[in-house]
Each structure stands twice: as C-alpha cells, then as structure tokens.
C-alpha cells in the first residue's frame, strides 16, 4: 500500500466514524495531511469519486445499515448521518437506493461500502522533476468553465498581437485556481496569459506571480480536450508512486507550441504540479 492509499483509507475511516460531523473538503484535507489545492485531485484519481460523492454515499450507507440493524426512527437515523432535514434525507436516500428509507428497511438488504482503488488505471505519461523559475505573468483572468478559457486566451493573444507584445512574452501559461469538483462551474477561476519580460503591466491585463521551485512536470501530447486524462495520470498513477508531496500552490500549464499553426495531435503541453 502506498502512502497515498493510506491517506485515502484514513479519510474513508474518518468519514465512516463521523457521518454527522464536519466532512468539508478542508477538514478531510487536514485528516489526509495534504495540500488543499491538490487533495481533491488525488482523492478522485484514486477512488473514482469526488470527496462530496464519497461523503454522500458513505453517509447513506451508514443510514442503510442503521435502518436494517436498528429500530431507531428514520428521522433519528437521518440526523445521525448529517441530514437534520428528514425530507432531504428521504430524497437523497431514494435517489441512491431506489426506494424510500421505510421501504428499504423492509427489504433487509445492504450494499458494499467502499469502491476499489483505481491506482494504475490511467496511462503513464512522462514526468520529470525540475526546479522551475519564479514567473511574473501578465494576462486575462477567466471565470467560468475551464473548457471555455480559450475565449480569454483569444483576448490575450489579440492584445499581444495589436500591441506587438509577443517579443516580451517568454511562453504562454494558464493557471487553474479552483477545483471543478468543489466549486460551481460558473465560479471557477483561472488565468490565461504568459511569462512577462517587460516592465509595466500592459493596460487591460493583470499581473500574476508564480513562485517557482521544485515541480513535477508531465509532458502531454495531443488535443487540449485530453488534458483531463493527463491530470488523472499525474495524480492517480505518478504521484502515489513518487514519494513526493504537492505544495500549497495551484497547478499550471505551459503551452510549448501554437494551436494556430500545428494540428491538435501535435500540441505539446507541460502540466506542472508544484512540490514541497
């Protein structure tokens, strides 16, 4: 068992033992002793579920066990697993088990509580550990679906082109500041820009600084639509076997060629994970 699998088991046991307690993402990251920036990615890559899905499933599993093995009232069971509102509990239970809590109690059946680990299910892509330089970025903040960040890159590119800024841009970079698993799509924050070698920040752009340091860099070749699988490979295959710890910094991507001049299958992207 890897260290990361041990952390997952510790979190799963914590959820099981505290179904009515604080099972927020921050609390579970503390239990795992992991960076809040990257905990959710590791968890999903290894279990195949988001933290929220696991919490919901395990709470309802505890409720199902209590329904079959105890005579407690349904509302008491609901409260004990973190559902103070019996109506919302009944709705969630019916969605998961296909019948009401009372009907389930009469069937006297249970379901297995834990999914298998998924370590090794993802393709291995090349990863190297590098010492990245600190970067001063300029660009356009983006809010909304990460898949739509291209709109902000189009604006960034247009400003660079019309103002002849490209000679002062060392490389094109994106930063993804939130977890799609825990933040509503409309509220996701990212940054589309490039490493700035000039002086003053260009009008209409903002500055963002990356601290640099020890970084795991995965090189992905192919269309940007396949980057989600690359992240699964990084967090689900490479990281658990690496013995490394993620830092309290977001992932970022460095784009090594231009989608306007090369076909999608030839695009090269470095997926960068800051390490402690």
From TrEMBL:
SMART domains associated with the record: AraC_E_bind, HTH_ARAC
Domain HTH araC/xylS-type intervals: 9-107
Keyword line: DNA-binding, Transcription, Transcription regulation
Gene Ontology molecular function: DNA-binding transcription factor activity; sequence-specific DNA binding
The keyword Flavoprotein appears for this protein: no
InterPro entries per record: AraC_E-bd, GyrI-like, Homeodomain-like_sf, HTH_AraC, HTH_AraC-typ_CS, Reg_factor_effector_dom_sf, SmbC-like, Tscrpt_reg_AraC-type_HTH
Keyword Thylakoid: no
PANTHER family: TRANSCRIPTIONAL REGULATOR YGIV-RELATED
Protein name: AraC family transcriptional regulator
Originating species: Ruegeria pomeroyi
């Amino acid at each position: 068992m890897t260290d990361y699998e041990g952390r997952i088991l510790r979190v799963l046991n914590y959820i099981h033992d505290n179904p009515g307690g604080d099972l927020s993402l921050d609390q579970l990251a503390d239990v795992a002793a992991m960076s809040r920036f990257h905990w959710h990615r590791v968890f999903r890559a290894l279990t195949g579920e988001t933290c929220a899905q696991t919490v919901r499933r395990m709470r309802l599993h505890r409720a199902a066990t209590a329904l079959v093995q105890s005579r407690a009232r349904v509302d008491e069971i609901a409260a004990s697993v973190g559902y103070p509102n019996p109506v919302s509990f009944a709705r969630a239970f019916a969605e998961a088990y296909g019948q009401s809590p009372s009907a389930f109690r009469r069937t006297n059946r249970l379901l297995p509580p834990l999914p298998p680990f998924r370590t090794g299910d993802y393709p291995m892509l090349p990863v190297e550990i590098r010492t990245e330089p600190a970067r001063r970025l300029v660009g356009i903040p983006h809010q909304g679906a990460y898949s739509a960040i291209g709109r902000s890159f189009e604006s960034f590119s247009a400003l660079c082109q019309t103002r002849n800024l490209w000679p002062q841009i060392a490389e094109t970079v994106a930063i993804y500041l939130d977890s799609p698993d825990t933040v509503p799509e409309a509220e996701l924050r990212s940054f589309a820009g490039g490493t700035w070698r000039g002086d003053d920040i260009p009008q209409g752009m903002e500055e963002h600084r990356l601290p640099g340091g020890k970084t795991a860099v995965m090189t992905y070749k192919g269309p940007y639509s396949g980057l989600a699988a690359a992240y699964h490979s990084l967090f689900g295959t490479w990281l658990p076997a690496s013995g490394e710890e993620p830092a309290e910094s977001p992932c970022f991507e460095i784009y090594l060629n231009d989608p306007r001049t090369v076909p999608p299958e030839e695009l090269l992207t470095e997926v960068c994970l800051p390490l402690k």
